[in-house]
């Protein structure tokens, strides 16, 4: 896994190079990318925003992107596993061949824009800074006064604001997540959860029987809840259930204070949406019994990276 210092070194090498801006709309879970022409002062401002993201990485603490990890304001996730990077490949269209990419005029920017990305670097190694749900329309034309150097000036065209922050950064073989919620919303909104959720659920059903109704209910919950699909993905990737029996699941449930007869019924796993976290924590081995109190508790945090 690349260290934060190595990632920062790569950013430092790319930040002075060519900068481009693309915006993305969604159509059938596919990102439609459009290139936006930039004036020199606008490019300078966006480069400054990229530098701010670089500084956050320098000052923050790296964490592994696991099923139970939750970021705080001083942390970021580092992702370098091939499977997740392949899933994030959809965002690479935002750093594609600009000569072949349709160009959109600033006047065509509207609220259908789902995300925007600033790419820095040459074609053989661009780094992407991605932001969800921007730009934003902030006023109606002709009804806003802009603060100039000496006086207020009427603005007749639409004004869009680009927030001075990014949700995640993508290099050629790594990704850094700065804002977990926005990143996971984008992951779902571009169709990645819908595309993979059936495979993730098979990480359970390939080894342990589950009722059809429970499978359907689990899929529905996962499509709308990031904590659910993250745990399903982790279970499928670990593959640990291949050597686990229903009897072992029921025994483990009893050990951590869950009702075994509600988890395994008539020789099948039963998923209750109201108890989804207990069910998934159980299968992902996130539940423990405290040695002092005998009470069940959940492992919420993973250790920081070295």
What is the terminal-to-terminal distance?
Answer: 11 Å
Overall geometry comes to: elongated
β-strand amount: 15-25%
Radius of gyration: 23 Å
Side by side, the strands of the main sheet go 3-4-13-12-7-6-1-2-5
Report mean pLDDT, rounded to a whole number.
83
The helix count comes to 10
Main beta sheet, described? 9 strands, mixed
Low-confidence stretches: 289-297, 300-306
Order of helices and strands: HEEHEEHEEEEEEEEEHHHHHHEEHEE
Total count of strands: 17
Structural class: alpha+beta
Considering DSSP H and I runs of 4 or more, what fraction of the residues is helical? 25-40%
Explain what the structure shows:
This protein has 306 residues and is an alpha+beta fold. The protein has 10 helices and 17 strands. Helix 7 (226-238) runs parallel beside helix 10 (276-283). The relative contact order is 0.13.
Please provide a brief summary of the model.
This protein has 306 residues and is of the alpha+beta class. The chain has helices at 4-14, 40-59, 82-87, 180-189, 192-205, 212-224, 226-238, 246-255, 260-263, 276-283; strands at 19-27, 30-36, 61-64, 75-79, 103-104, 115-120, 127-132, 136-137, 144-147, 152-155, 160-161, 168-170, 175-177, 264-265, 268-269, 287-289, 296-298. Helix 5 (192-205) crosses helix 7.
Features:
nine-stranded mixed beta sheet, 36% helix, 306 residues, alpha+beta, two-stranded antiparallel ribbon, disordered C terminus
